[in-house]
Design goal:
The protein is of the alpha/beta class. Helices cover 41% and strands 15% of the residues. The chain has 11 helices and 8 strands. The chain has an 8-stranded parallel barrel, surrounded by 5 helices. α1 runs parallel beside α11 and α7 packs parallel to α8. The protein starts with a strand and ends with a helix. Bound molecules: 1,3-dihydroxyacetonephosphate. 1,3-dihydroxyacetonephosphate binds next to β8.
Protein backbone atom coordinates (compact mmCIF):
# COMPACT_ATOMS: atom_id res chain seq x y z
CA UNK A 1 0.00 0.00 0.00
CA UNK A 2 1.17 3.54 -0.75
CA UNK A 3 2.44 5.38 2.28
CA UNK A 4 0.53 8.36 3.69
CA UNK A 5 2.58 11.40 4.73
CA UNK A 6 0.60 14.18 6.41
CA UNK A 7 1.73 17.57 7.68
CA UNK A 8 0.01 18.93 10.78
CA UNK A 9 0.55 22.68 10.83
CA UNK A 10 -1.13 22.98 14.27
CA UNK A 11 -1.86 26.68 15.09
CA UNK A 12 0.66 27.99 12.57
CA UNK A 13 0.18 29.62 9.20
CA UNK A 14 -1.18 32.89 7.85
CA UNK A 15 -2.05 33.47 4.20
CA UNK A 16 1.61 34.01 3.32
CA UNK A 17 2.32 30.38 4.24
CA UNK A 18 0.25 29.09 1.31
CA UNK A 19 3.41 29.36 -0.79
CA UNK A 20 4.97 26.56 1.28
CA UNK A 21 2.05 24.26 0.45
CA UNK A 22 2.33 25.18 -3.22
CA UNK A 23 6.06 24.44 -3.00
CA UNK A 24 5.29 20.97 -1.64
CA UNK A 25 2.77 20.33 -4.43
CA UNK A 26 5.33 21.43 -7.02
CA UNK A 27 7.83 18.92 -5.66
CA UNK A 28 5.56 15.84 -5.74
CA UNK A 29 6.41 14.71 -9.27
CA UNK A 30 7.39 11.04 -9.15
CA UNK A 31 6.32 10.64 -5.51
CA UNK A 32 4.14 7.55 -5.00
CA UNK A 33 3.19 8.28 -1.39
CA UNK A 34 -0.13 10.02 -0.73
CA UNK A 35 0.63 13.42 0.80
CA UNK A 36 -1.56 15.88 2.68
CA UNK A 37 -1.35 19.07 4.74
CA UNK A 38 -3.69 19.92 7.60
CA UNK A 39 -3.52 23.71 8.01
CA UNK A 40 -5.49 25.78 10.53
CA UNK A 41 -9.20 25.91 9.66
CA UNK A 42 -8.85 29.53 8.52
CA UNK A 43 -6.57 28.44 5.65
CA UNK A 44 -8.41 25.30 4.55
CA UNK A 45 -10.54 26.74 1.79
CA UNK A 46 -7.77 28.97 0.42
CA UNK A 47 -5.29 26.10 0.51
CA UNK A 48 -7.63 23.67 -1.20
CA UNK A 49 -8.24 26.24 -3.97
CA UNK A 50 -4.53 26.95 -4.32
CA UNK A 51 -3.80 23.21 -4.60
CA UNK A 52 -6.67 22.23 -6.87
CA UNK A 53 -5.43 20.03 -9.70
CA UNK A 54 -2.41 18.89 -7.66
CA UNK A 55 -2.12 15.54 -5.83
CA UNK A 56 -1.60 17.29 -2.46
CA UNK A 57 -4.63 16.73 -0.20
CA UNK A 58 -5.78 19.06 2.55
CA UNK A 59 -7.35 18.20 5.89
CA UNK A 60 -8.63 19.50 9.19
CA UNK A 61 -6.94 19.13 12.58
CA UNK A 62 -10.10 18.37 14.57
CA UNK A 63 -13.87 18.48 14.19
CA UNK A 64 -16.97 18.64 16.33
CA UNK A 65 -19.05 15.43 16.42
CA UNK A 66 -22.31 17.26 15.65
CA UNK A 67 -23.01 18.41 12.07
CA UNK A 68 -24.25 21.90 13.08
CA UNK A 69 -25.76 23.77 16.00
CA UNK A 70 -25.12 26.12 18.89
CA UNK A 71 -21.45 25.25 19.49
CA UNK A 72 -19.68 28.60 19.41
CA UNK A 73 -16.20 28.42 17.98
CA UNK A 74 -16.40 24.82 16.77
CA UNK A 75 -16.17 23.42 13.24
CA UNK A 76 -18.02 20.32 12.02
CA UNK A 77 -16.75 17.56 9.75
CA UNK A 78 -19.27 18.71 7.13
CA UNK A 79 -17.76 22.23 7.26
CA UNK A 80 -14.26 20.82 6.76
CA UNK A 81 -15.44 18.81 3.75
CA UNK A 82 -17.28 21.87 2.39
CA UNK A 83 -13.99 23.83 2.62
CA UNK A 84 -12.20 21.20 0.53
CA UNK A 85 -10.81 18.84 3.18
CA UNK A 86 -10.56 15.11 2.46
CA UNK A 87 -8.65 14.21 5.65
CA UNK A 88 -9.07 15.04 9.33
CA UNK A 89 -6.73 14.46 12.27
CA UNK A 90 -8.65 13.34 15.38
CA UNK A 91 -7.66 12.69 18.99
CA UNK A 92 -4.26 14.42 18.76
CA UNK A 93 -2.54 14.32 22.15
CA UNK A 94 -2.63 18.13 22.27
CA UNK A 95 -6.42 17.85 22.22
CA UNK A 96 -6.63 14.84 24.51
CA UNK A 97 -4.41 16.59 27.09
CA UNK A 98 -5.39 20.22 26.55
CA UNK A 99 -9.13 19.83 25.91
CA UNK A 100 -9.95 16.70 27.90
CA UNK A 101 -10.84 14.64 24.84
CA UNK A 102 -11.72 11.08 25.84
CA UNK A 103 -11.59 7.94 23.70
CA UNK A 104 -15.41 8.04 23.51
CA UNK A 105 -15.38 11.61 22.18
CA UNK A 106 -12.69 10.73 19.62
CA UNK A 107 -14.86 7.79 18.50
CA UNK A 108 -17.85 10.13 18.08
CA UNK A 109 -15.71 12.56 16.08
CA UNK A 110 -14.52 9.66 13.94
CA UNK A 111 -18.15 8.75 13.18
CA UNK A 112 -18.71 12.39 12.21
CA UNK A 113 -15.73 12.31 9.86
CA UNK A 114 -17.10 9.19 8.14
CA UNK A 115 -20.56 10.78 7.90
CA UNK A 116 -18.98 13.75 6.08
CA UNK A 117 -16.91 11.55 3.77
CA UNK A 118 -13.56 12.44 5.34
CA UNK A 119 -10.68 10.01 5.90
CA UNK A 120 -9.92 10.17 9.64
CA UNK A 121 -6.39 9.92 11.03
CA UNK A 122 -6.89 8.83 14.64
CA UNK A 123 -3.98 9.61 16.98
CA UNK A 124 -2.82 7.53 19.92
CA UNK A 125 0.30 7.66 22.07
CA UNK A 126 1.66 7.26 25.57
CA UNK A 127 3.26 9.86 27.87
CA UNK A 128 6.80 9.46 29.14
CA UNK A 129 5.51 8.50 32.60
CA UNK A 130 3.33 5.79 31.04
CA UNK A 131 6.28 4.44 29.03
CA UNK A 132 8.55 4.46 32.05
CA UNK A 133 5.92 2.54 33.99
CA UNK A 134 5.96 -0.17 31.31
CA UNK A 135 2.44 0.73 30.19
CA UNK A 136 3.05 2.02 26.63
CA UNK A 137 1.48 -0.95 24.85
CA UNK A 138 -1.56 -1.18 27.11
CA UNK A 139 -2.20 2.58 26.91
CA UNK A 140 -1.90 2.72 23.14
CA UNK A 141 -3.94 -0.40 22.40
CA UNK A 142 -6.57 0.77 24.89
CA UNK A 143 -6.80 4.08 23.00
CA UNK A 144 -7.16 2.17 19.70
CA UNK A 145 -9.99 0.01 21.07
CA UNK A 146 -11.75 2.99 22.65
CA UNK A 147 -11.34 5.56 19.88
CA UNK A 148 -12.09 3.55 16.73
CA UNK A 149 -15.75 2.77 15.97
CA UNK A 150 -16.56 -0.52 14.21
CA UNK A 151 -18.00 1.47 11.29
CA UNK A 152 -14.40 2.15 10.17
CA UNK A 153 -14.18 -1.41 8.84
CA UNK A 154 -15.29 -0.59 5.30
CA UNK A 155 -13.89 2.95 5.08
CA UNK A 156 -10.45 4.45 4.45
CA UNK A 157 -8.75 5.57 7.65
CA UNK A 158 -5.32 5.70 9.30
CA UNK A 159 -4.02 5.47 12.85
CA UNK A 160 -1.12 7.69 13.93
CA UNK A 161 1.16 6.55 16.75
CA UNK A 162 2.55 9.70 18.34
CA UNK A 163 4.40 9.18 21.63
CA UNK A 164 3.62 12.36 23.58
CA UNK A 165 7.25 12.66 24.72
CA UNK A 166 8.49 12.68 21.10
CA UNK A 167 6.27 15.54 19.92
CA UNK A 168 8.21 18.75 19.36
CA UNK A 169 11.10 17.55 21.52
CA UNK A 170 13.61 16.25 18.97
CA UNK A 171 13.43 12.89 20.79
CA UNK A 172 12.30 9.80 18.90
CA UNK A 173 11.80 6.21 19.99
CA UNK A 174 14.25 3.63 18.62
CA UNK A 175 13.05 1.81 15.51
CA UNK A 176 12.66 -1.29 17.72
CA UNK A 177 10.33 0.64 20.03
CA UNK A 178 8.36 1.96 17.04
CA UNK A 179 8.09 -1.53 15.54
CA UNK A 180 6.92 -2.98 18.86
CA UNK A 181 4.11 -0.45 19.26
CA UNK A 182 3.07 -0.58 15.60
CA UNK A 183 2.83 -4.39 15.81
CA UNK A 184 0.64 -4.07 18.91
CA UNK A 185 -1.56 -1.49 17.15
CA UNK A 186 -1.89 -3.79 14.13
CA UNK A 187 -2.96 -6.68 16.35
CA UNK A 188 -5.52 -4.46 18.09
CA UNK A 189 -6.85 -3.19 14.76
CA UNK A 190 -7.32 -6.70 13.37
CA UNK A 191 -8.99 -7.79 16.60
CA UNK A 192 -11.36 -4.82 16.40
CA UNK A 193 -12.10 -4.59 12.68
CA UNK A 194 -11.09 -7.92 11.14
CA UNK A 195 -9.31 -7.88 7.76
CA UNK A 196 -9.87 -4.12 7.31
CA UNK A 197 -7.75 -3.63 10.40
CA UNK A 198 -4.90 -5.32 8.57
CA UNK A 199 -4.97 -2.82 5.72
CA UNK A 200 -5.13 0.63 7.32
CA UNK A 201 -1.81 2.50 7.39
CA UNK A 202 -0.28 3.10 10.81
CA UNK A 203 1.62 6.40 10.72
CA UNK A 204 4.43 7.37 13.07
CA UNK A 205 4.54 10.94 14.41
CA UNK A 206 6.89 12.81 16.74
CA UNK A 207 10.04 14.72 15.70
CA UNK A 208 10.11 13.30 12.17
CA UNK A 209 12.75 15.24 10.22
CA UNK A 210 14.45 14.83 6.83
CA UNK A 211 17.40 13.20 8.61
CA UNK A 212 15.45 10.40 10.33
CA UNK A 213 12.47 9.93 7.97
CA UNK A 214 13.90 7.21 5.72
CA UNK A 215 14.88 5.02 8.68
CA UNK A 216 11.54 5.47 10.44
CA UNK A 217 9.54 4.94 7.25
CA UNK A 218 11.34 1.68 6.50
CA UNK A 219 10.49 0.24 9.94
CA UNK A 220 8.08 -2.70 10.01
CA UNK A 221 4.39 -1.67 9.97
CA UNK A 222 5.16 2.04 9.53
CA UNK A 223 2.75 3.08 6.78
CA UNK A 224 3.61 6.76 6.76
CA UNK A 225 4.26 9.77 8.96
CA UNK A 226 2.39 12.57 10.71
CA UNK A 227 4.74 15.54 10.71
CA UNK A 228 4.46 18.67 12.83
CA UNK A 229 7.17 21.35 12.81
CA UNK A 230 9.06 20.06 9.77
CA UNK A 231 5.93 20.23 7.61
CA UNK A 232 5.89 24.04 7.85
CA UNK A 233 8.81 24.25 5.42
CA UNK A 234 8.34 22.91 1.88
CA UNK A 235 12.01 21.95 1.69
CA UNK A 236 11.96 19.99 4.96
CA UNK A 237 8.62 18.33 4.23
CA UNK A 238 9.79 17.31 0.76
CA UNK A 239 12.96 15.94 2.37
CA UNK A 240 10.76 13.72 4.56
CA UNK A 241 8.54 12.69 1.66
CA UNK A 242 11.66 11.67 -0.27
CA UNK A 243 12.29 9.10 2.47
CA UNK A 244 9.01 7.35 1.70
P1 LIG B 1 6.55 17.39 15.60
O1 LIG B 1 6.83 16.73 14.25
O2 LIG B 1 6.73 18.85 15.58
O3 LIG B 1 7.27 16.67 16.70
O4 LIG B 1 4.97 17.16 15.87
C1 LIG B 1 4.42 15.90 15.72
C2 LIG B 1 2.94 16.02 15.77
O5 LIG B 1 2.37 16.29 16.81
C3 LIG B 1 2.20 15.83 14.51
O6 LIG B 1 0.84 15.70 14.74
Amino acid sequence: MNRLIVGNWKMNGLGAALGEAQGVAAGLGGVVARVGICPPATLLERMSRALSGTPLAVGGQDCRAEASGAFTGDVSAEMLADAGATLVILGHSERRAGFGETDALVAAKTEAALRAGLEPIICVGETLAEREAGRAISIVTGQVRGSLPKSLADRPFAVAYEPVWAIGTGLTPTTEQIAEIHAAIREALVGLLGPAGGRAPILYGGSVKPGNAAEILSTAEVGGALVGGASLSAADFLGIIAGA
